[in-house]
Amino acid sequence: MSHATKPTSFPVAEHPQRARVPARIILAYAVGVYLVFGAVLGYAAGFFAGLDVPKGIDQGPHAAVPVATAIDLLLLALFAVQHTVMARPWFKRRWTRIVPQPAERSTFVLAACLVLALLFWLWRPIGGTVWNLRGPGADVLWAVYVAGWVLAIDSTFLISHFDLFGLRQAWLNTRHVRYSPPPFTERGLYQRIRHPLMAGFVVIFWAAPVMTAGHLLFAATATGYILAGIAFEEHDLVQSLGGTYTAYRARVPALIPRPWLGHPLLGAQRSEEHDRKQAI
After folding, report:
1. HSE-CB of 155 using CA atoms within 13 angstroms
2. Fewer beta carbons under 10 A from the terminal one: N or C of the chain?
């Protein structure tokens, strides 16, 4: 879920390492982490759907509702803290005094995978059905669920998929090429919404034909975290990109597209009209 999503990333100041780690070791580490990420992502798809995994979101050992709620919220808070703190530039500057800079992003991804795996393992189901759709209604929600995954995964390739998961950094290191973050981009889905990756996950969390109390707890809490995470991320993006991102944020909505953004000229006209009304 990782904030796991970004039009750009932040360069991290270089620090001398006590012992230089061979570039091929870092690359092998990055590839291994990427494979772990793929496995965790596949499990996540089954976990939320309750299909083809040993333990889904509504399966596993039961506990009293207060105990189960406390455990689940603690697991979600652990993921939020890991994802938020490790993504901040100030943390990266300190962290790369310990971890080689080309391995920093892969280490972030590995930490996120481990926290997610812990959440899948220790999550406690909470009974009570909020809604239970059958027939065509359930089919529609399953289609929306799949569309959410397509949206989330596709959005990573619109920026730099391999940079987002640490492979590009490790590869450039083997080529002795200095790393530079991908340039700011505004193409494809990023022309309609600023955070398509996060939008995809919101869809995934809520597109459940059977919504239990436990699933609702996850969906509501995770959505709240996404909204808070967007605020943290955009603060960093404004600091990094300045007016470029400020103008982008004023023009393009965060998660829900506006119909008139489908045509650039029409979108610009609406933006100008809005500015005039604000001036009046």
Report:
1. 29
2. C
